[in-house]
């Protein structure tokens, strides 16, 4: 049960939403805030005050005053007219996050909506009736107007929803659960479509995925260090205390502990190699930089989760109803773009380590890990796929938030493109997951070829987990299936759980 009681929320609070249905409960104290806000809005409206989007048109049409008899129709027209989205629908986990973010936004008590709208949102969330929301159409300016309109369309009983593993007309799902379509009151359509909830949900899911990838990249990087007969000494925490970057220190400490007790490492202690390539020697510096960006962007997105992103704002009897631009998604877009850069670097250095493993180990592992080089190609094309994904990521990393295209008759003359920044981030993370999957597939194969030398106790556990899902095979075969299995292992967090059964990862 997720309780909305006015507390501060973290990305961890949203993690369960991406795996399945949850329940939400809003406290009586929040109800009081919401009702006070609505009563204040009603007071100003009854006094005949012009309030943007309540008794005026929207955007460049805001100079048009709306009659009292048309106020409900104004909100209904807003929802229907703004449902102009396209693209593949958002997955159900993202939609749950959007609904919860909207509930949190209303819970601050500055939106002027009625308590019954909050309760209606809770009904959708608690019955897991999830609006079908197209993924494209937001410029992240007056909030994520288009996708949030599709969310709102379901609340009024129109459009389609995901319900009980089906996509069905909303009205059918509501009838099955005995829920009446919502009839919008003044400002409620605007309150629903204004906000950064869609962009923030993308960033939240990106953070959720990347948190696992950061630890997993350290684990896989450590196995590659071992498999390529590289030096463990460069990860000694004493060395990395000289650099005052916590992310670097954590990464170095992780690899140092993972490789403790490795017979493979001790076997080449006097090999004469002075320095390993940057893709190995500088893992802490590069993974660590990504960790630093992650930590900073996590703080920014958590601030946005707990912020009001609505307009106009119903403040108090003294301050009245005010206008601002809290729906603008610039801060979310920049954060998603920064996370994208951090993720691209994780994938980029992983691809370089895969490339290095294609050299084999003289006298122990043939080139491309081929059992019969020449007749067989081994893992040659696995590296090519990793290179393709890494290159794709470099293009996707171009920041969306530096772009702007004016909309709404130049009323929205500088937009954030935050939703696109978030969508790109998720594409990049999917590619990084597969690159890391290829790396562990190759590195574990190398460990097997280095027998009878024994890996570290921790890496031996990881190898056993991988081999439970992907069998060791000599000779050429179709690699795609194994790559998908390895990527699933990376995404699942099982590698982290296996390692943390023995040592603590930071």
Architecture blueprint of SSEs:
Elements: E1 2-4, E2 24-26, H1 28-46, H2 71-82, E3 86-89, H3 92-107, H4 115-126, E4 130-131, E5 134-136, H5 145-155, E6 160-163, E7 166-169, H6 170-177, H7 188-193, H8 197-227, H9 237-240, H10 246-258, H11 263-267, H12 278-281, H13 283-305, E8 313-316, E9 320-322, H14 330-357, H15 380-396, H16 418-449, H17 457-469, H18 480-492, H19 494-500
Parallel strand pairs: 1-2
Antiparallel strand pairs: 3-5, 4-6, 6-7, 8-9
Helix pairs in contact: 2-5, 3-4, 3-8, 8-10, 8-13, 8-14, 8-16, 10-13, 13-14, 14-15, 14-16, 15-16, 16-18
What does this structure look like?
This protein is mainly alpha-helical. The protein has two domains: 2-195, Fumarase/aspartase (N-terminal domain) (Fumarase C, Chain B, domain 1), CATH 1.10.275; 202-500, Fumarase C, Chain A, domain 2. The model has no long low-confidence stretch (mean pLDDT 95). It has helices at residues 28-46, 71-82, 92-107, 115-126, 145-155, 170-177, 188-193, 197-227, 237-240, 246-258, 263-267, 278-281, 283-305, 330-357, 380-396, 418-449, 457-469, 480-492, 494-500; strands at residues 2-4, 24-26, 86-89, 130-131, 134-136, 160-163, 166-169, 313-316, 320-322. It is elongated and about 85 Å long. It has 19 helices and nine strands. A three-stranded antiparallel beta sheet has the order 4-6-7. Helix 10 (246-258) crosses helix 13 (283-305) and helix 16 (418-449) crosses helix 18 (480-492).
